[in-house]
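Design request, tokens follow.
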């Protein structure tokens, strides 16, 4: 099936208005190279208009009662669910994501909006007794969270809907305006969401969805009128942004080279099944894709035999075909880069057990062993459908080797030993430890984020809202 928005470029959403610009952006299908549709890149004047509108809108949005914010978000959730097939097919066309995965992404986006509504309606403070010494007698503190002001959001290509919604929903829930820069490779799905924003009654100026050049994105990063920058993308770009962000808060959800530990006590059938999913979903183009896999020496032969065999059965092909497991990478340049990294690993002594050869934008499921840890497929973020496997002899060794990384996003640990599960939780230097599942596991209300080069701050509705609000205390004193 071919998805097209037609020959006329799709207008962009500027503070509640649909506008054009002289700079047309062509969006192509990664699987075929064919044009999916066209839209526009915002001009400097349009950017300025969006920021000024966000500043004006804040005087309205900061006073929006919880029931209105909740109503808007529930309307959005329902509209996303009602247009599930349309949105999923558009994600397939512009991002190359297999249709089964695209449908899950749409379902998750609907959930995020619903969760945003629930959080909007339970943003609460607390009562703090202050009479801890005589001079503070007859005093009590009451806390409440207040919206901080306009937010700058920059979202990536790999989840063009759900990761953008993870910025949009908490902004609306907390009463903050947001200017969102979607990825230029696949911005069309968020312009569909803009239609739903209009239908749901979002206040004028509260949301702008503007594809932009990188230079315009840099301008947004340094703009002091924004009170928070929330960015999901590559570590190199994210940390540079932080240095230019000025006084605003910065939340960075960056990359990783996620570790997976398979202990000798693991349920092998379950571990193999989940490890295959975690290694190759969306061609490995997720920041928590399994990249470094550590398997106990006692089960190495059996596990690896099963894992390679299961990986070899995955179907590589047309992402619109419901039977496809692995679609294209986002572009040919990334497939070539992956090929270079695999070739480097082999030249350093690594062995290819499966795959390892690019074909255009497609890269097959790939399994490597005997790769030195300083090879780029180990030390950097591959963002590709490949996994590098290593033996280990003890849980202490596995934890040490997972921690031997510049990244620390999430780690999966398959074990039936409760003591080892607690050891992993206590000692792994990551933002999330997933016991008896893959590091790629995420549900949208849990805190999500990393340490080290994997970023700072946490997403997940409640935690995003904390960053998008300021805690204020009122002290009540009784005259004595």
């Amino acid at each position: 099936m071919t998805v097209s928005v037609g020959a006329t470029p799709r207008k962009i959403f500027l503070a509640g208005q649909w506008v054009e610009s002289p700079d047309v952006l062509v969006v192509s299908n990664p699987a075929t190279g064919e044009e999916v549709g066209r839209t526009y890149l915002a001009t400097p004047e349009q950017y300025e208009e969006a920021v000024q509108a966000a500043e004006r809108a804040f005087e309205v949005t900061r006073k929006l009662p919880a029931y209105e914010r909740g109503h808007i978000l529930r309307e959005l959730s329902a509209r996303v669910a009602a247009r599930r097939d349309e949105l999923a097919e558009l994600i397939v066309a512009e991002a190359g994501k297999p249709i089964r995965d695209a449908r899950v992404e749409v379902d998750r986006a609907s959930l995020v909006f619903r969760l945003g509504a629930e959080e909007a309606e339970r943003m609460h403070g607390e009562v703090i007794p202050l009479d801890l010494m005589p001079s503070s007698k007859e005093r009590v503190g009451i806390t409440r969270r207040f919206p901080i002001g306009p937010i700058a959001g920059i979202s990536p290509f790999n989840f063009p809907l759900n990761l953008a919604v993870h910025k949009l929903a908490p902004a609306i829930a907390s009463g903050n305006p947001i200017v969102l820069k979607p990825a230029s490779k696949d911005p069309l799905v968020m312009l569909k969401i803009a239609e739903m924003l209009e239908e749901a009654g979002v206040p004028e100026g509260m949301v702008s969805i503007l594809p932009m050049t990188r230079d315009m994105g840099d301008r947004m990063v340094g703009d002091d009128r924004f009170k928070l920058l929330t960015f999901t993308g590559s570590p190199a770009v994210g940390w540079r942004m932080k240095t230019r962000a000025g006084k605003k808060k910065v939340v960075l959800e960056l990359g990783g080279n996620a570790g997976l530990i398979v202990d000798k006590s693991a349920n092998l059938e379950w571990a193999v099944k989940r490890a295959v999913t975690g290694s190759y979903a969306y061609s490995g183009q997720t920041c928590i894709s399994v990249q470094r896999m550590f398997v106990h020496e006692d089960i190495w032969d059996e596990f690896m035999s099963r894992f390679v065999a299961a990986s070899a059965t995955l179907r590589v092909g047309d992402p619109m075909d419901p039977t496809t497991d692995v679609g294209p990478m986002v572009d040919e340049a990334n497939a070539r880069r992956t090929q270079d990294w695999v070739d480097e690993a082999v030249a350093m002594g690594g062995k290819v057990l499966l795959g390892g050869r690019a074909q255009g934008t497609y890269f097959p499921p790939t399994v490597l062993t005997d790769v030195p840890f300083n090879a780029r497929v180990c030390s950097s973020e591959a963002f590709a459908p490949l996994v590098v496997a290593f033996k280990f002899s003890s849980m202490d060794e596995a934890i040490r080797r997972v921690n031997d990384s510049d990244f620390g996003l999430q780690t999966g640990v398959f074990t039936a030993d409760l003591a080892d599960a607690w050891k992993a939780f206590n000692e792994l230097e990551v933002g999330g430890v997933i016991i008896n599942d893959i590091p790629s596991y995420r549900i949208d209300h849990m805190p999500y984020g990393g340490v080290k080069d994997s970023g700072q701050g946490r997403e997940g509705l409640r935690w995003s809202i904390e960053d998008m609000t300021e805690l204020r205390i009122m002290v009540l004193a009784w005259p004595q």
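Comment from the thread starter after seeing the answer: thanks! The CA atoms of residues 283 and 385 lie 5 Å apart.
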